[in-house]
Description:
- The chain is α+β, with helices and mostly antiparallel strands.
- 30% of the residues lie in helices and 23% in strands.
- The chain starts with 10 loop residues before the first helix and ends with a strand.
- 48% of the residues are buried.
Amino acid sequence: MRFVRWSEVICALFVVALVSFSPTLVIAAKDKLTINLVGEPATVDPHKHWNHDSYAVYRNIFDNLLTRNTAGDIVPQSARSWKKLSDSEIEFTIRDDIVFHDGTKLTPADVAFSVKRITDKEFKSPQLGQFNKIIDAKVTGDHTLVLTTDGPYPPLLAQLVKLSIVPEAYVTRVGDEQFNRNPIGSGPYKFSEWQRGVKIVLEANSDYWRGTPSFATVEFQAVKDGATRIANLNTGSADTIVAVSPDQAPEIKAANGIKVLSSPTERVGYMMMNTQFGPLADVRVRKAIAHGLDRQLIIDALLGGYGDVVSQLLTPAHFGWVDGIPTLPYDPDKARALLKEANYNSDDVLVLNTSTRFSQQLNQAVQQQLAEIGVTMKIEVSDHPTYLSRRTARPEGFGGFAIGRWSCACQDADGVLYAMFHSSSKWSKYNNAEMDALLEAARSTLDETVRMENYKKIHEHIYQNVPSIPVYQVTSIYGAQDSLNWTPTANESMFVMDMSWTGD
């Protein structure tokens, strides 16, 4: 897939796109859909989002400015069309038939407010780095607004796929905290109930502009234990579950009445090195660790074949993926030689930060493989919010490295590489002037050829300097009742509007 070119999208094209994007909107024989998540959403405010559990819920409450259809193409959602005014200005025409859950109309002013809210530095959105090139959002007519960037910004449309529209009047009146407790959007489902630590309940929006959702009620439950989620699926108390591990998939496949659903994602499993503090400041130590990892064995033995080795922090679904980038091969002898050359102290203990959401078997496999080359690793597992706090900590508080699975949900390299490696990003543990310049150049031209040349240099830089080790392309695995009709997508959206039910 490639980033769509700046062009005016007319209404006729939107109709075609919407037909291909929309599921059949019918009332299901089943009124209530129950989804088991891993944890409780950290927030349901879409501009405060920072984890998958949050996204799974709020994506159903809010409409975005743009979205992707099932083919992965960028198409309008709250916007009806758009056109380029200049290299740094784009005009959006907003639909006039969308109503928020409180009965008020969605207007260009709400879109402008949403943009300014998420780009306000004082608001401290975790998504700020993906929108901070926008410097103005100005209403220009009853149905239009213009977004202005601080120069050419080619990933803009890809980033706006994630921009949820919130109602200005309501948010301003109740404040951010109350908005998170009782969110109002314009999406296919209305917020109904939040029992902390237990469940969030959504009710169908009968006035949704795309039609009536298939299920009258959706209940998201927080179920931390994977075995419990599978048990719930087997008993029918859950209709679909997330985060099925590869070793659990055969159990689901062998059971009656339930099935495995899976999809390659735009997410890459990686190891992020702390290049600014401790032994990993030495590139030879970082290269040694890369040579000490048998990534194919990890995929075959621990991931059940769900995943592919990747040589870059992207997948083929991203603009910016470059064919032919090499990878540092598994070579334990080379690893030991590099450690000796670097005078690595084997008594040093490198801390690995990881989350309960990630495979502990994988963590232990990495620990064992590094032990074989003479590197001692201590695994520190925390809940996901705590892990994210550590992941964004200053270098001296970060530990040695972290295992993570990065996704920008935008399918553009800028949303991954700028956030992970630019020195200004709180996610980065790398400070390199050459890398900063390449990242800035890649996001500052509309010429796709020039962008790709810069991304090739960035991938080569990462290969040579190893600020991070790409390990594998993540495959999302779900369990579901046989009656659930749903095709998971690369962006891992649990958009219930795309689901339906067959049978009683």
